[in-house]
Amino acid sequence: MTDLPLIGETEIRVRYRTLVKLSYDVGWRGKGQERGAGVVRDIRGYLRYVQLSLETVVDGTQIPGHEEPPVLDRPDAGVWRSPQVSDDWTDPADGC
Prior knowledge:
This protein is mainly α. The chain is 43% helix and 0% strand. It has one domain.
């Protein structure tokens, strides 16, 4: 996390910190366990949103609008997904 202060956009730092907190809540606190794989898909969806946000900072393009993060221990089985991340967006780290 030593590089986090180098990210000039406050909103992007908040998104990154939120991603770390969500991951900690699932991994160490067991939040959302009753939802099984659904909570993992929530984290993956939020990760893609944060990745896209970081990509826009690097590219100098418009940052995606704010999205409320997933509520991990919610009762419904739906998967959190940002409508701002298109289905055809791929992670550059995957070599796509």
